[in-house]
Amino acid sequence: MSRAHLASPSALPRACGSASRRACRAAAWRIGAAACLALLACGAAPAAYAQFNGSFALDKAHLNRENWLDWRAYQPPPEWREDAYRQPNAMQVSVGSLSQVRFFQAIDIRLEKDIGAYATILYTQDEVSLFRSNPIYQEAEMRFGANGLYGSIIGFPNADKSLGSQGLAVAWGKRTDPNTVRLSYLQEQALFNEKTEGTARYASAPILNRLQARFFPGERLRVEVDYRDEPAARLVSPELHKQETYQAQKFDGWADWSAREDLVVGVVASDNTERRQFIPDAASPGLPAREQALTWGWSELHGVWTLAGGDVLTLAVVQSAFENVIQAPDPQLVYHFRLRTTQGYALWEAVRSAWFRWTFSLQVGEVHKFEAASKDDAERNDSPTVQGKFGFGVILTEANQYRLWLLSTWAPDAISGQKWDGGNMQFQLFF
Description:
Layout: H1 12-15, H2 21-42, H3 67-73, H4 78-85, E1 90-97, E2 103-115, E3 119-129, E4 137-146, E5 149-156, E6 165-172, E7 180-188, H5 192-195, E8 201-204, E9 207-215, E10 221-237, E11 242-260, E12 263-280, E13 290-306, E14 312-327, E15 335-351, E16 356-372, E17 380-398, E18 402-410, H6 412-416, E19 422-430
Antiparallel strand pairs: 1-2, 1-19, 2-3, 3-4, 4-5, 5-6, 6-7, 7-9, 8-10, 9-10, 10-11, 11-12, 12-13, 13-14, 14-15, 15-16, 16-17, 17-18, 18-19
C-alpha cells in the first residue's frame, strides 16, 4: 500500500547534501519545537471545571458563515490520524483563527509506559474548541492484565478535591494494537457532594460512559469509533433557588479502505448533542425557566491519491451542521441559530524532499444560515450563499519524530479588501 507516510530516514541523504543535511534537520526541528511551545501556550489556560466536559450554562452560541470551511482547513491529512494511533506516545495540536476573537483549538496527547509485565500507566489529554472554549479533559489510567485482557482504574485528581474524577475501565487489546475495544465508566466531580462548600449538591452526579473501538482487519480496511454518553446530571442549588441539568451524547468515527495501491477511500462522521435545563424553584424575571438543545456534526467522503513522484492529492465532499435552540416562556429569551454547509475540499501536497513539502488547498461551499433572536423578532433568514477559501502552506517532517504544518488561508472577499483571512499551525510529535 502506497501512502504519504513519514519520510524514511534513508531518504534524508537524498534530500540534503551531506554537508548541509544536519543543518537542514536542525533548523526544521527548531522551528517545530518553537511552534509546539507556541501552540501549547495557546491551550495552557486552565478551565474552572477541568474534569467535567459538560457545562450548565445556556449560551447563545453560534458560528460565522465561513467557520465550517475554516474547521475543515484546520484538520490534519488522513494519514496523520492513523499514524498517531500507531505510536504509544504522541501529541497532536491544531490552532487556527476562526474570527477576530476566537481560535479553533484541538489538542490530543497520549502517553503510555509499561511497568513490568502486567501493568501499564497511560495518560490522555484532549480538548476541541470550535464554537466555545471547552474545558481540558484529562484522564490517567493504571492498567493491569496480560494476554489481551485488561482492567483499569481511571480518573484524574484536582487541586479542589470536589472536582476530581474516578472510574473503571475494561479493555481487549492495547491502545496501539490493530484491534482493540475499551469500555469505561467515569464519575466526574466524584467527591463534589462530600467536599464542596455551600449548599449546592448533585441530585444526579455527572457520569461519562464511553466505548472506544478500533479494527484493522488486514491491510486494506481500518475502522475506528468513539461513543460517549453522559446521562442527565442534575445540580440543585437551594441558596440560589434553582436546579440545572445537563446530558450529552457524542459519536466520532472513521473508516479508510485501500481501494488500490495508490488510492485510499475513506469516510468520517461525527454527531454531537447536548441538552440543558435551568429550572427555578419559582419562575420570575430574575430567575426565568429555559432549556437548550445544541447539536453539531459533519460527514465526509474523501479519496487520497499518491501521485507520481510521491505527491499526494486529497479530494473530499463534506456536509456540516450546527444548531442552537433556546426555549423559554419569556419570548425575549428564545433563540434559534442554524448553520449548514456543503463543501468540496481539495488538498495537494507537493513533495520537494524527504523532510519538506508545499501544500495547496481549495474549498468551495454553499452555506445556509438562519437566526432568530426571539419569537417577536423578524426572522433573519439569510438566503444561501457560496463561500470559498484557498490555502497555501508548508509541511516539515522528520521520520518517526515530528510533523509541522504552517498554513495560511485566504477568502476572495478578504483579498478584495486586501485583508488576510486566517491561518493555522498543526504539530504532530512522536516521542
